[in-house]
Amino acid sequence: MDYEITKLTDEAIELLKHLIAIPSVSREETEAADCLERFMNDKGLRTCREANNIWTLPDVIDDNKPTLLLNAHIDTVKPSKSWTRDPFSPTMEGDRLYGLGSNDCGGGLVMLLQAYRVLKDKDVPYNLIYMASAEEEVSGKNGFSKALPLLPHIDVAIVGEPTGLQPAIAEKGLMVIDGKAKGKAGHAARNEGVNAIYVALEDIEWIRNHRFRRKSQLLGETKMTVTILNAGTQHNVIPDTCTFTIDVRTNEFYKNSYVYAYLQKHLKSELKARSTRLSSSAIPFDHPLVRRCVEMGMTPFGSPTLSDQALMPWPSMKLGPGESSRSHTANEFICRSELEKALRTYLDLLLVNI
């Protein structure tokens, strides 16, 4: 078995190197998706594809068994200017493989695929599906949500985001709201007009001080932060408009739609949510997969970062090699030892009733 694990890990690293070498920024993943699809076909897997989302599943789904989805994303963020290496030149130095997307989330992408290949022909008590999704980093319309209607019924999912191979069993949601405070223009030298900045400041102060009552054991409070503010055209004109942006991170107790309606009720400014679909997601503590993780010595936690979990209408958790702190950073890397441990962990975890 150790020989097979080593062989599968080496093979996964070569695939990951190929993927790193192909720029696959969100909405530009076609070539990387082609590469992954060729690899899967070469390994005898029947693939389905919608846009740049690729998945493989059994020829026949047994309706008497639950269905487990293994998911990770193909796309990356744009490389920051602080990279001191070529982000698209995969480089192995000791235990580390450097390259854009190696940690987020190339490691989970290739190791979940290898786990699928090992398990697909075994007598496991569930239907197994593997899916590589696109546009995760921008929650794009041609990403996971485009393929979702084409998938069979799914009971639970494991998402291969970097979590240090600890189960992230809850994840904060995200909602971005644009606000517009309205005033009345006037000359700054005279006591006239209504300053839209001051109108906005009242709302911003309310946002700053408000606390939602229900605090999550795993995710903490639902948090609101004003991150952008714009107003005024010149120094001697009272601004009649002030715009601002609110970053909202919801815990599992508050749906984005509820928070949006709640803010509309309490603030004077006009508000418009860019989207309310990226709500918090979670899996129960007593789910068999979580219990098995605990039996294996893992520690469940809550994740502040967003993933395709937010688009999944079923229980899900994140579990993958690498560290979230490396994601979106210069000189990103994943360790070979992390990849090998991930495959062992996935196989140990998934040989259990769900």
Q: How is the secondary structure organized here?
A:
Layout: H1 2-20, H2 30-42, E1 48-50, E2 53-56, E3 67-73, E4 91-93, E5 96-98, H3 102-119, E6 127-133, H4 144-147, E7 156-159, E8 168-171, E9 175-182, E10 186-187, H5 196-209, E11 223-231, E12 237-238, E13 241-249, H6 256-266, E14 270-273, E15 281-282, H7 288-295, E16 301-303, E17 316-318, E18 333-335, H8 336-350
Parallel strand pairs: 3-6, 3-7, 7-17, 8-16
Antiparallel strand pairs: 1-2, 2-6, 4-5, 5-18, 8-15, 9-13, 9-14, 10-12, 11-13
Describe the structure.
It contains eight helices and 18 strands. The protein has helices spanning 2-20, 30-42, 102-119, 144-147, 196-209, 256-266, 288-295, 336-350, and strands spanning 48-50, 53-56, 67-73, 91-93, 96-98, 127-133, 156-159, 168-171, 175-182, 186-187, 223-231, 237-238, 241-249, 270-273, 281-282, 301-303, 316-318, 333-335. The protein has a six-stranded mixed beta sheet. The chain has a four-stranded antiparallel beta sheet with strand order 11-13-9-14. It has a three-stranded antiparallel beta sheet with strand order 4-5-18. α1 (2-20) crosses α8 and α3 (102-119) packs across α8. The longest helix is centred in the N-terminal third of the chain and has 19 residues, at 2-20.
